[in-house]
Design a protein that fits this description.
It is built from 10 helices and 12 strands. The protein has a 5-stranded antiparallel β-sheet with strand order 2-1-5-4-3, with helices on both faces. A 5-stranded mixed β-sheet has the order 7-9-10-12-11, covered by helices on one side. By secondary structure, it is of the alpha+beta class. The N and C termini lie far apart (72 Å). The chain folds into 3 domains: 111 residues, Beta-Lactamase, CATH 3.30.450.20; 82 residues, Orthogonal Bundle (Helix Hairpins); 165 residues, Histidine kinase-like ATPase, C-terminal domain (Heat Shock Protein 90), CATH 3.30.565. A hairpin with a 5-residue loop joins strand 9 and strand 10.
Length: 371
């Protein structure tokens, strides 16, 4: 149907798409030389067009990903449409997650060059990871409801029925009453744990990171535990540079170290004095690696598997506890955008390693302080 509207030439329409697309678009020859680049790519690498064209795309890639892009270029030159996703940081940009396509341009059956399109899917991936974590949390709470809540509640209901049949003041009445109180106490503990965890989840993201002097904070934690350290003859060695700052919520960091040091004290080996070593280093990209290691009783890591940081998991039945501390530590670490892992052997101690990301550029300069 003729609408009377003028027909825009194909070249004009395609050029408009090329120039205005928020996605990165390049056209390379079969050797990988950039022949054209759209404004989105130029803005990302922070260089003008004249300094980008006629250069290898590899010039704008970190060395560790160049072989992958070379391989994908060869596949496209061979006539294949190629799609892959990866983390990288073209030019001087921050590390992002990219969905990349390479499309061969053919003429008369011959590949003359390759179009590359790259879409930033960082937020999409982050959302997927958050949904996965939330699903894991849901599974944890399902476990709590089905086991940790149901058992004491069912026992309490049965004991309440039994109590109604006993004579007040009789030995059976007193014993049943004590058991009922014990089960209600267990029920209250589980509800308190759930409330603490849910409250923590609700507060995530409400407080902004601040520059925290790491050594000062850990010294405060050690001071709060000094009495029990003195009682058991334990010592804590801090290998923390005084100038090292971490961009984080102070309360989360305090809780992380308090729980890890408390666990080290609680599960110390009886046959030797407790020794805890806390170290921290900053990597070349600004990330911070923290480590808390002890010479305590340790645990069977092969047996524990991936349950180390799960809720209500206990690996020292001879000690009292509910198996909540490491779950909270992991939650705090992940709230800071980091990750944690554990390494341990029975009677050889345990080591917990935490990796925290580089501070965001929106923080004040002293978050990166080295003085």
């Amino acid at each position: 149907m003729d609408t009377g509207a003028p027909l825009v030439p194909n070249e004009v329409r395609l050029r408009s798409l090329f120039e205005n697309s928020p996605e990165l678009i390049l056209f390379q020859d079969t050797a990988g030389i950039i022949l054209d680049a759209n404004p989105a790519f130029l803005a990302l690498v922070g260089e003008p067009r004249e300094q980008v064209l006629n250069r290898p795309f590899a010039d704008f890639l970190p060395a560790d990903v160049r072989p992958l892009f070379d391989q994908k270029l060869r596949e496209a030159v061979a006539g294949h449409v190629v799609r892959f996703d990866m983390y990288t940081h073209p030019g001087h940009s921050a590390i992002r997650h990219w969905d990349v396509m390479k499309l061969p341009l053919r003429e008369h059956g011959q590949v003359l060059g390759v179009h590359m399109l790259a879409r930033d899917i960082t937020e999409k991936k982050r959302t997927q990871e958050e949904l996965f974590a939330q699903n894991q949390d849901l599974q944890q709470f399902t476990y709590i409801v089905s086991h940790n809540l149901r058992a004491p509640l069912a026992n309490a209901l049965g004991l309440a029925d039994l109590l109604a049949q006993e004579t007040a003041g009789s030995p059976d009445f007193e014993q049943t009453h004590a058991l009922l109180q014990d089960n209600l106490h267990q029920l209250d503990l589980v509800l308190r744990d759930m409330n603490a965890i849910l409250s923590m989840r609700d507060k995530q993201g409400l407080t902004k990171p601040e520059p925290v002097a790491l050594r000062t904070l850990v010294e405060q934690v050690v001071h709060s535990l000094q009495d029990v350290l003195d009682e058991c003859g334990g010592s804590v060695e801090l290998r923390l540079p005084a100038e090292l700052h971490v961009a984080a919520q102070r309360a989360y960091l305090y809780s992380i170290f308090f729980n890890l040091l408390s666990n080290a004290i609680k599960y110390r080996a009886a046959q030797r004095p407790l020794r805890i070593v806390v170290t921290a280093t900053r990597g070349p990209a600004g990330e911070v690696t923290l480590e808390v290691a002890d010479n305590g009783s340790g645990f069977d890591q092969a047996r524990a598997g991936d349950k180390v940081f799960r809720l209500y998991q206990r690996f020292h039945p001879q000690h009292s506890g509910r198996g909540v501390g490491l779950y909270l530590v992991k939650m705090h670490v992940e709230s800071l955008g980091g990750r944690i892992n554990a390494a341990s052997q029975v009677d050889e101690g345990a080591r917990f390693t935490i990796l925290l990301p580089a501070p965001p550029s929106t923080l004040p300069p002293d978050a990166h302080a080295t003085n």
